[in-house]
Write a structure and sequence with these properties.
6-stranded mixed β-sheet; binds magnesium ion; globular; Rossmann fold; binds inosinic acid; alpha/beta; 182 residues; 26% helix
Length: 182
């Protein structure tokens, strides 16, 4: 285990087992939609890139993958409550079924803002698949059709999640020692 991590909450195997489950659910739910209007997975860069790459391979349907970057935290561990689009999608989503792949839902502000923006582009449907959802007060009321794990309100890293751009390549998800960021 990395010396800056106090404990591992999900191992590589546990993450992959959960992604297989999520992939099966999406494969079942979007079987017709993917073949008719089309299915697009949207990755919120950069944290969700690892998750989306694995999730896409667990879905046995034709699909597109597109990427978007929004800013939220900078190098701090607290959400600023403001979100800005830094990189937009490459393709049009009008009339297609869209699933946003998110790494973690914390305050929910990032997703809330993003969903408003994407809804304006008139997709056939818009849903969220988040690997992690923090159990905390004051979270925006976002309906996630797919949630991997509910996690405690601690700062976590690994499997795509960073602190100041580090730790994304840890293969597991773990709690970052508070002394690293305080
Ligand atoms: P929200 O807007 O507060 O829901 O947070 C959105 C983004 O903040 C997530 O997509 C993550 O990239 C990042 N984030 C939130 N909590 C954590 C954490 O515990 N570790 C690492 N990144 C986090
Ligand atoms: Mg993110």
């Amino acid at each position: 285990m990395h010396e800056d991590v106090s404990k591992i909450i999900y191992s590589e195997d546990e993450i992959q087992a959960k992604i297989r489950e999520l992939g099966q659910a999406l494969t079942r739910d979007y079987a017709d939609a993917a073949r008719n209007e089309g299915l697009v997975l949207i990755c919120v860069l950069r944290g969700a890139a690892t998750f989306m790459a694995d999730l896409a391979r667990a879905i046995e349907l034709p699909l597109e993958m597109d990427y978007m970057a929004v800013s939220s935290y900078g190098n701090s561990t607290k959400s600023s409550g403001r979100v800005r689009i830094l990189k937009d999608l490459s393709s049009d989503i009008e009339g297609k079924h869209v699933v946003i792949a998110e790494d973690i839902l914390d305050s929910g502000l990032t997703l809330m803002r993003l969903m408003e923006e994407l809804q304006c582009r008139r997709p056939a449907s818009l849903e969220v698949c988040t690997l992690l959802r923090k159990d905390r007060e004051g979270q925006a009321p976002i309906k996630c059709r797919y949630t991997g794990f509910e996690v405690p309100d601690e700062f976590i890293v690994g499997y795509g999640l960073d602190y100041a751009e580090r730790y994304r390549n840890l293969p597991y998800i773990g709690v970052l020692k508070p002394e690293v960021y305080s």
